[in-house]
């Protein structure tokens, strides 16, 4: 945290301590009501339920932080405040993601692209174009078959995928949760074809041809 950020944080904490004494115990419930009526800057429409919930969690974290450090007045019983606020907020039901059925067509399109000739001398434009196509095929197959997010797929390295022979890997996904992903035989073939065409010794799974991956570590470069 920089000096300026720390100073602003201290000022905010001091201001909170000064004003907490005059805040009503129902402040969170009132604040939720205010948020629902507050117009957005650009459209002028009220905030949506998802935005109100996001803002509530941020404010709630601030109050929890203050409660742990005993900065709240004694009349502020955090457990009761949180329960009342959650009741006022209500439960938000999220619509599950809908998958675009045209995504496999993108993979088929890349698979059907003509392969540029691999030049005898590595590192030139022709050989790089060939490697880029093999890389794109491997990455698209991996993401479609496994269901990984792009960032998750880019964390895999050559050891994780066992030079293209593995059909599964353990990753750290959203929310820092560990999970196992699987992919099919076509993905294995695409990975092996790409890695076999590379002549570098980088541990990265995918990176831009002719360039050193950022950090020269175990993560895949986006390319």
Pick out its properties.
2 strands, mainly alpha, 223 residues
- Which range best describes the helical content: under 10%, 10-25%, 25-40%, 40-55%, 55-70% or over 70%? 40-55%
Number of strands: 2
**Average pLDDT figure:** 79
Which percent range describes the beta-strand content? under 5%
Content-based structural category:
mainly alpha
Molecular shape: elongated
- Main sheet makeup: 2 strands, antiparallel
What is the spatial order of strands in the main beta sheet? 1-2
Termini, distance in Å?
A: 32 Å
Could you give the order of the helices and strands? HHHHHHHEEH
Number of helices: 8
Rg for CA atoms: 26 Å
How many domains make up the 3D coordinates?
2
Show unreliable segments.
215-223
What does this structure look like?
It is a single chain. This protein has 223 residues and is mainly alpha-helical. It folds into 2 domains: 3-89, no CATH class; 103-216, no CATH class. It has 8 helices and 2 strands. The protein has helices spanning 3-20, 27-37, 49-68, 78-89, 103-111, 125-146, 150-153, 185-197; strands spanning 168-172, 178-182. The chain has a two-stranded antiparallel sheet with strand order 1-2. Strand 1 and strand 2 (178-182) form a beta hairpin. Helix 2 (27-37) packs parallel to helix 4 and helix 6 runs antiparallel to helix 8 (185-197).
């Amino acid at each position: 945290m920089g000096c300026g950020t720390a100073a602003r944080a201290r000022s905010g904490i001091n201001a909170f301590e000064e004003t907490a004494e005059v805040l009503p115990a129902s402040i969170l419930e009132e604040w939720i009501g205010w948020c629902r009526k507050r117009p957005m800057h650009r459209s002028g429409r009220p905030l949506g339920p998802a935005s109100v919930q996001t803002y509530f969690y941020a404010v709630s974290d601030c109050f929890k932080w203050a409660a742990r450090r005993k900065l709240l007045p004694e009349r502020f019983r955090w457990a009761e405040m949180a329960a009342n606020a959650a009741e006022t907020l209500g439960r938000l039901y999220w619509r599950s993601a809908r998958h675009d059925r045209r995504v496999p067509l993108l993979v088929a399109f890349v698979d059907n692209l003509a392969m540029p000739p691999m030049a005898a001398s590595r590192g030139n434009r022709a050989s790089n174009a060939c490697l880029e196509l093999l890389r794109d095929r491997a990455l698209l197959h991996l993401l479609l078959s496994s269901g990984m997010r792009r960032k998750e797929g880019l964390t895999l390295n050559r050891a994780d995928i066992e030079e293209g022979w593995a059909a599964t890997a353990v990753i750290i996904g959203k929310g820092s949760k560990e999970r196992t992903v699987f992919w099919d035989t076509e993905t294995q073939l695409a990975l092996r074809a790409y890695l076999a065409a590379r002549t570098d010794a980088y541990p990265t799974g995918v990176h831009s041809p002719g360039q050193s991956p950022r950090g020269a570590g175990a993560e895949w470069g986006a390319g």
